[in-house]
Design a protein that fits this description.
heterotetramer; A alpha+beta; B alpha/beta; C alpha+beta; A: alpha+beta; Mth169, Chain: A; 3-stranded antiparallel sheet; 2 helices; 3 strands; 35% helix; B: alpha/beta; Rossmann fold; 9-stranded mixed sheet; globular; binds adenosine-5'-diphosphate; binds magnesium ion
């Protein structure tokens, strides 16, 4: 089954990319976009067919490799 | 005195560190493959810069595709900068003067060190901040911080002070023909540290190039 | 007979199809047709250019490998060879600037290490539309980031290059990349397959459907949906390439290989047939053994895929295990996909069943060759006319012509073509490997050769505008400039490579430009003693029928026997004497000045006396070798005024006070002065000399019959230039340097750190 | 309201990042992860409270700035 991992900067960490995109959008006239935060997104194809197992495995992988715990947090979806 | 230079599959500054240690300093130096389990009796271990495992995940992975991403990505930058020696009681700064300003190249994309303020305060209190970005006169000013690194940090040591990690590349500044020989001080410090026994002889120390 | 649509979509002409049938003695199947179509494409067969390229000088005592292999090689002494080549990635870079440029770098690096050389330097030559056009910054940014992204991660310094902006490249930017590596002269490895029964190995990235070209795809077998599955854009993987580089160099140190070649254009097809053909052998492979990234790939797709980072090796019998072990160490898996045969055929099997069988030589040596019709372009006679007394008002009307020439100088220094390229090269890791003696921006890139006292100077140069006005002279000037740049670092030019960027060769005017340019390259290379050891041709560079300026780009490699005698453009401090070697004749045709100040691209490019050029270069090399000069900089875009200004930059603001002769090119005094300051006469170099060495330099110049005279002195903080005794330029170095150093940056929005 | 934009490489486009991560995971002993694809993830804070409008705006922004149509495709969620 497939697990999806979303890695984002912790709220307290400044996100220069997101900010620059937001600024660029404002310049382009998209005032309707108030704020932008950017993150990373991973799709993992897993052997397991057990949602709980899949979630646990994805979390382990995120902890070990995908996210930098100092500045990032992550969220997992399984389907 | 023996240097070990650890080679990861994507390391690209390994030859440079080897050349600095062996050809410039005249020390014994050896490459160690990352899958090896034996450091071959090295006194100093260098983890060279480069893209050890491709570094797609955290360094330079994202600047790639859409135009705006390039717009906002901290660009890779390669040029000489100045760093100030903050601590001289590490094996890699022993031969420096406190407050001494070194001219050394940087070469990195995402080179800015980040930590929460509490962490920085702790590093400060433990005197773990070894190098800071400054201008040529040794002043910490925004213009001289090439990457927006927190507290202008360019290099840190661990609590036991035998591991130093730094963003600039001292191995690129070991010969006057390359524009600066200031990096040599860092290598010479390691040699001196061993000779004078500052490290208690058996303690292995490591220099980690983050850039 | 196959459907004419299928033929057309494969880019094959009916008579070419007839030849295929003749070679095979039967109708080709679709896989075979695909193989013929890529091998007989302009890109692989050089069918339009070959007759002309044959005329280039390729020999010389220093040449270890001329054209025909993956890269050329010259002897640099002490048993070492410099292996180098330039290649274009224009079309992919236009579709996707980042990936196009990145994979271009990846491709040229493979060409170099394929020869057994460790790559130690990269350069690039780029052309874009005007930087103030809306599309250009995005393209420039993507291309530069792509070059940086690939070269930096793999750890090869980018030590030089050039970037120019002209409207003719707006719809078709040029991305030419150059790589140089060092090998033991005795260890150069070739792309040959021989020895019946030897194993053919595949190693590197898996094969996907990337880069199977739209134009060469056809037939009932492929519906709309499958076309959607085949992206034209290839994505590079520098980490994979780094592994391949290290692993291949390690394998090459063993005595296990017969030959090796990268899979570049036309992938597996090109590498198998070229290796077989060079070795006079046949190659048989089974595509089912090829590592595949996607499921359900057909033999057609596997053979034509241009997935990046793949190599083909022929291994000596009995050494298979040794080779496999080395690749394993680097986490790569070498796969035995076939064998060398004695029948001269490319035989492709799929799970044992033959799906294609073609004589190798039909795909290589016996590919079609065309003598395409040629005729001078219609625009030419008119464009070559330049009446300086009838120029339209200058853009800076009044000021440029009658006031001090400061404004014109600033206009030139602030133009992105002349201004500093630091914006680009600070993104390149130009110091990794700790060999770079002259960093980018100081003239030719210079890298030392560790373990020797030697160093190599490298320069790539082209001038599309000159070639547009006269392709023969323009191409000669490009060779001269590249070699002169190398000489200005103190290095003796040894050899050259060339990348020929032109429009559609089926148009007689383009073919004429091409032929004339090749003649010009040949003449200049012969006269200057720099044989051509390889290169690349990129045709069909046009959008909506409008071609780019004809743009031959020349890469020259030169040798310094004493690395510590290297010089660069920067003056070394106050109190030195400034000497001009060569003579200005006020030539304004095709200059940056006319373009910027008058919006005029006309006239003939500067004249070039090849004997004078050769004497000048030899003199500069000798002066550097004798430690008689402290800096050297050639006069190119923007003339002597810009050259003098550039001598002052990056010195902390040291100035020059100079005085140059008047010239008379027309009735207008202001224009005459501009011609003296900004004219682009060739064969000129500005050197700075310690005061007690000036006489010796002048007498050495006289001995070499090179005109030379003292034009000034370094010092102060201003650049002051008198022309004909009257002050023409008076600016502070600081102000001029600010304009020059922000010429590109100013086009990009300020971004967060 | 918030729109989330997921940008991924088109399926046939080679994803060296994802592949390198997958390889690294295999080396670390995570055989249970068969394949990894990496993408980008954006959170947009929008002024509008209309889901349809939010979706349309996010799509426009994605087309213009966030995704490179030559090699990437995107998906939008609104909540
Ligand atoms: N303009 C040129 N001048 C001389 N030789 C050339 C030129 N263009 C291509 N060649 C030579 O033709 C051969 C084939 O070139 P090319 O197809 O570009 O190589 P590759 O197979 O590496 O892509 C090479 O040996 C190259 O050096
Ligand atoms: Mg090749």
């Amino acid at each position: 089954m497939r697990a999806r991992v979303f890695v984002t900067l912790k709220p307290s960490v400044f996100d220069p990319q997101g900010k620059t995109i937001a600024d660029a959008l404002h310049t382009l006239g998209y005032g309707g976009v108030q704020d932008v935060r950017q993150g990373k997104y991973f799709e993992l194809d897993l052997v397991t067919t057990e949602p709980a197992q899949a979630r646990a495995l994805a979390a382990e992988v995120a902890d070990k490799l995908l996210a930098n715990p100092v500045i990032e947090s992550y969220r997992i979806e399984v389907d | 005195m023996k240097f070990a230079i650890v080679v990861f599959p994507g390391s690209n500054c390994d030859h440079d560190a080897y050349h600095a240690a062996r050809d410039v300093l005249g020390q014994n130096a050896d490459y160690v493959w990352h899958k090896d389990t034996d450091l071959k009796g090295a006194d100093v271990v260098i983890l060279p810069g480069g893209f050890a495992h491709g570094d797609y995940l955290r360094c330079g992975a994202m600047a790639r595709f859409s135009p705006i991403m390039r717009e906002v990505q901290a660009k890779f930058q390669c040029e000489h900068v100045h760093i100030r020696v903050e601590q001289t009681d590490t094996p890699f700064t022993l031969a420096c003067r406190r407050g001494q300003v070194l001219r050394i190249p940087i070469a990195h994309g995402e080179g800015n060190y980040f930590a929460e303020p509490e962490v920085i305060a702790r590093l400060e209190a433990n005197r773990q901040i070894v190098f800071r970005y400054t201008n040529a006169a040794g002043a910490v000013v925004d213009d001289a911080n090439p990457n927006g690194s927190a507290a202008a940090i360019a290099g840190l040591c661990n609590e036991t002070r035998n591991v130093v990690g730094l963003m600039p590349h001292p191995e690129r500044a070991c010969e006057p023909v390359l524009g600066s020989a200031d990096g040599l001080l860092i290598f010479e410090s390691a040699v001196a540290a061993l000779k004078t026994g500052v490290l208690g002889g058996s303690t292995r120390s490591a220099l980690e190039a983050v850039g | 007979m196959v459907d004419p649509n299928v033929l057309e979509r494969h880019g094959l002409k009916p008579d070419e199809y007839d030849r295929i049938v003749q070679f095979l003695g039967r109708e080709p199947n679709l896989t075979e047709l695909g193989i013929f179509s890529v091998m007989w494409s302009e890109h692989c067969s050089y069918k339009s250019s070959r007759v002309h390229l044959k005329t280039l000088p390729t020999g010389g005592p220093q040449v270890l490998q001329g054209p025909g292999e993956n890269a050329g090689a010259v002897d640099i002494g002490e048993g070492l060879a410099a292996v180098f080549k330039i290649e274009s990635h224009n079309h992919p870079s236009f579709i996707e600037p980042y990936q196009g440029a990145a994979t271009g770098v990846g491709g040229i690096i493979r060409d170099i290490f394929t020869m057994g050389a460790r790559p130690i330097a990269l350069l690039n030559s780029l052309r874009f539309g005007p930087l103030d056009a809306p599309e250009t910054p995005r393209l420039l940014e993507g291309v530069v980031a792509g070059i940086a992204g690939y070269g930096n991660s793999i750890g090869i310094p980018t030590v030089g290059g050039e970037i120019a902006f002209e409207p003719s490249y707006a719809g078709n930017p040029l991305v030419n990349v150059f790589c140089l590596g060092i090998a033991k002269a005795s260890d150069i490895i070739k792309g040959v397959a021989s020895g019946v029964g030897n194993a053919v190995y595949y190693v590197g990235a898996k094969t996907g459907r990337d880069g199977i070209h739209g134009a060469t795809m056809a037939s009932a077998e492929f519906d709309e949906k499958s076309a959607e599955k085949r992206p034209a854009v290839q994505v590079g993987d520098p980490f994979m390439e780094k592994l391949l580089l290290e692993a291949c160099l390690e394998v090459m140190r063993t005595d296990t290989l017969v030959g090796i070649q990268d899979m570049g254009a036309a992938g597996l097809t090109c590498s198998t047939t070229e290796m077989g053909s060079r070795g006079g052998a046949g190659v048989e492979i089974d595509v089912s053994l090829v590592p595949q990234r996607e499921t359900g790939m057909t033999p057609y797709e596997i053979m034509l895929s241009e997935s990046q980072e793949r190599m083909l090796l022929v291994v000596k019998r009995g050494h298979e295990a040794e080779v496999e072990r080395i690749f394993d160490k680097w986490d790569l898996h070498a796969v035995h996909i076939g064998n060398v045969t004695d029948d001269g055929l490319l035989r492709v099997k799929d799970r044992g069943a033959v799906v294609a069988e073609i004589p190798n030589r039909a795909l290589t040596d016996q590919a079609p060759v065309y003598h395409r019709p040629m005729a001078p372009p219609d625009y030419l006679a008119e464009a070559q006319q330049l009446d300086l007394d009838a120029l339209p008002p200058s853009r800076e009307a009044g000021r440029t012509l009658s006031g001090p020439a400061n404004d014109a100088l600033m206009l030139l220094l602030g133009s992105p073509t002349i201004g500093s390229k630091r914006w680009a090269f600070r993104q390149y890791d130009h110091m990794v490997r700790t060999n770079t003696l002259n960093l980018p921006g100081l003239g030719a890139g210079v890298v030392r050769i560790k373990g020797t006292n030697r160093a190599l100077a490298l320069s790539v140069d082209g001038n599309g505008r000159y070639c547009y006005l006269d392709p023969y002279r323009g191409a000669m000037l490009a060779v001269a400039e590249a070699a002169r740049n190398v000489a200005c670092a103190g290095a003796r030019p040894l050899g050259a490579t060339n990348c020929l960027n032109f429009g559609n060769p089926e148009r007689p005017a383009i073919m004429w430009q091409f032929a004339r340019a090749v003649e010009g390259i040949g003449a200049a290379c012969r006269a200057l003693g720099v044989p051509i050891t390889g290169g690349n041709v990129s045709l069909y560079n046009e959008t909506d029928g409008r071609a780019i300026y004809p743009t031959p780009v020349i890469g020259v490699v030169g040798l310094l026997e004493h690395a510590d005698r290297v010089v660069c453009r920067r003056i070394q401090g106050p109190g030195d004497i400034v000497i001009l070697l060569g003579e200005g004749r006020g030539e304004l045709g095709g200059t940056e000045y006319l373009k910027l100040a008058y919006d005029v691209v006309r006239g003939l490019p500067p004249a070039l006396d090849l004997d004078a050029e050769r004497a000048l270069q030899a003199l500069v090399v000798a002066l550097a070798d004798g430690r008689l000069i402290r800096s050297a900089h050639d006069c190119a875009d923007g003339g002597i005024a810009v050259t003098l200004a550039e001598c002052c930059f990056d010195t902390g603001g040291v100035g020059i006070e100079a005085s140059i002769d008047e010239v008379e090119v027309g009735r207008d005094a202001g224009l005459n002065r501009a011609a003296a300051l900004f004219g682009e006469s060739a064969s000129r170099v500005v050197v700075s000399v310690a005061p007690d060495r000036a006489d010796e330099v002048l007498s050495r110049a006289a001995d070499s019959s090179v005109p030379a005279r003292i034009v000034g002195r370094t010092g102060g903080t201003a650049l002051r230039v008198k022309a004909g005794g009257k002050t023409a330029i008076d600016v502070t170095v600081e102000e001029a340097e600010r304009v020059w150093s922000t010429a590109i940056d100013k086009h990009f929005v300020k971004r967060v750190a």
